[in-house]
Amino acid sequence: MSWLLSKIKSIFSDDKVKHEFNNELERVLYEADLGSDVVKKVLSSVSKTKNAEDVKQLVENELMTELLSYKKGFILDDVLTVILVVGVNGVGKTTSTAKLANYIKNKYNKKVMLSGADTFRAAGVDQLEFWANKLGISFFSKGHGADPSAVAYESVLKAKSDAVDVLIIDTGGRLHTQDGLMSEVSKMQRAIKKSLGTDPKHVLMILDSTQGQNIKNQLELFNEALNISGLIITKFDATAKGGALFGALRLIRKPIFFVCNGEQLENISEFEPSSFVRKIL
Ligand SMILES: Nc1nc2c(ncn2[C@@H]2O[C@H](COP(=O)(O)OP(=O)(O)O)[C@@H](O)[C@H]2O)c(=O)[nH]1
Ligand SMILES: [Mg+2]
What we know:
With 281 residues, the protein is α/β, with parallel strands linked by helices. The radius of gyration is 21 Å and the shape is elongated. Strands 3-2-4-1-5-6-7-8 form an 8-stranded mixed β-sheet, sandwiched between helices. The chain starts with a helix and ends with a helix. It folds into 2 domains: 3-68; 81-280, P-loop containing nucleotide triphosphate hydrolases (Rossmann fold, 3-Layer(aba) Sandwich). It has helices at residues 3-13, 18-31, 36-45, 52-68, 93-108, 124-135, 148-161, 178-196, 214-226, 244-252, 273-280; strands at 81-86, 112-117, 138-140, 166-171, 202-208, 230-234, 256-260, 268-270.
């Protein structure tokens, strides 16, 4: 039995007066990290139900409705599609970049190139190059310590001259200050526009689903600086409660394109609301 269902069942099994019951249920729903909108909707319809399964079904329906609004097809351009991958340190940017490259290469049979702009860490570039070699796709970087914007700019020119279909640019997530990080990624976005002639098709933000409430700050910060196009949720295999994501997502309402479920290349799939809901309930 799911965590939430067993909690709900235990509330039903006690002989409680109605307002006590509602308070208990409210507490359990918040404990599952569901947002106040979802909790209010469930509480307002709960008077019509008679058992725990009904309540679980109500929660499930509310979540499905909400999550469906985050589903949107991941579209590539016919000409060079540039994807900038951003997020804080350790969330899974480099791993997700490799997974996404593999996914696009296999699903669309496109020519993909990776660009390593995490030049801040000594191993940042090597880690991505390892994946590019493993996937048998081309790789561009200027090595440890190079200016990330110069890497972005030049990799676009290289991708154009090599008739690449999809260029994915991996970035660093650690600088001395968050302001520094935001101005660096904004500068990269401008550098891409200069060499490409248009904005990158996608600015994908990587969110680590195990990070709970921190996700909110990260999302606001990056979205304000970059107007992100959508999200990749990582470490969904390792998160205990996915509910905390909802509050954060509700703030900016950007599509979730992919969900990652492990460290292997194939552990990426397009966002499916139903599997998300199963994980939470
Ligand atoms: N369990 C799990 N681990 C992941 C997932 N994605 C990334 N990781 C691990 O998280 C760590 C940081 O990943 P990395 O791509 O280097 O993060 P970056 O600093 O954002 O580039 C590595 O050990 C990855 O193997 C995932 O979906 N599930
Ligand atoms: Mg990295």
